[in-house]
Design brief:
It is a single chain. By secondary structure, this protein is an all-alpha fold. The chain has one domain (35-283, 290-326): Ribonucleotide Reductase, subunit A (Orthogonal Bundle). Helices cover 66% and strands 1% of the residues. The chain has 12 helices and 2 strands; from the N terminus they run H-H-H-H-H-H-H-H-H-H-H-E-E-H. The protein has helices spanning 27-33, 43-54, 78-107, 111-137, 145-152, 154-174, 178-203, 209-239, 244-260, 263-280, 282-285, 301-322, and strands at residues 289-291, 294-295. A two-stranded antiparallel sheet has the order 1-2. Strand 1 and strand 2 (294-295) form a beta hairpin. The chain starts with 26 loop residues before the first helix and ends in a 14-residue tail after the last helix.
Length: 336
Amino acid sequence: MTPTPRPDPATPGPTAPEADFDTAPGLLEGAMDLTLTADRCDLAYWFTHVAQGTLRDRAVSGHRDTTPTPDHMRRPGPLREAIVLELGQRALAEEYATRLLAHYVALAPGVPEMEFYATQLVDEARHSRIFRHHLTEVGLPAATLLADLEERNADYRRRVLDPVVDFTLDIVRDRADFAGGVAVFTIVIEGVLAPAAELSERKWSRLDPAASELSRTAAIDEIRHLTVGSSLLREHLARHPGYRSRVVEILHAGRDLWDKVPDREFVLAREELFQQGLSEHADVVGAQELWPGRRLTDTTPQERYAAAERWTDEMAEVRMRYMGLEDAIGILGGAR
């Protein structure tokens, strides 16, 4: 009998379009248009399409070795301080997300859900690592980086992250409510914060190409997290329609949470520094548009923040309709 030929494991197959760095949609487009499930996005998918696809040539830093970190990003000043605050706070948030997701893995009702959340846990840990790594690329000392970030962001952790963590742990750890935990991550946390990641990828594209590229790899992961989470909640509501009232309860609580958490204060502080650096380096940015018809150099911190809020609402409306939660559209409107 002639043995069945096997593919050469050293030759990876084609990467799924939604995971390919060059063909994946932007975060907003992908989160609104794609449908992905836990059955599809299992461990085999992650190893094949993410580890060997999205991260090909970008596994260590989130960007290719040839993508530059310009000298102006290493010089002390508002632009460097803006990236240090932004990526430092995002790194800390992703670290907290990683720790929270351990509870999702433990509580997962089936193998598909367990495998998916295991991959999301790794994704979030990777995001935290590449954000920290880039801070060493702009000149922060690696030996003291963790301690420096904790000291710089102690107020952010206490006033923003700790309340979000407590809110999530109450549902997924203390109440062991897996579906509620899915709603929290998919709608209340990532659904609210993801558009800010889209903004980051766009605004740094010329000022700091490496930061923009690593944000792009993170955004491709976030598309998967949002779409799979949405499909899990949609399937749960189809099987348990009575759970709808519980989801609505969680969304109202999530709105109360974001009304109390001063996330806007920290984001605008970063954007004010970015604005100063943008003015100093307008020649680097040139006529780059942040969105069609609006040049980055003409935008203001408040305008960029408002755009992220608008994108959040637009994305939420599409995802909520997909999940069958049309009557809950608007509960989280403007929640940042």
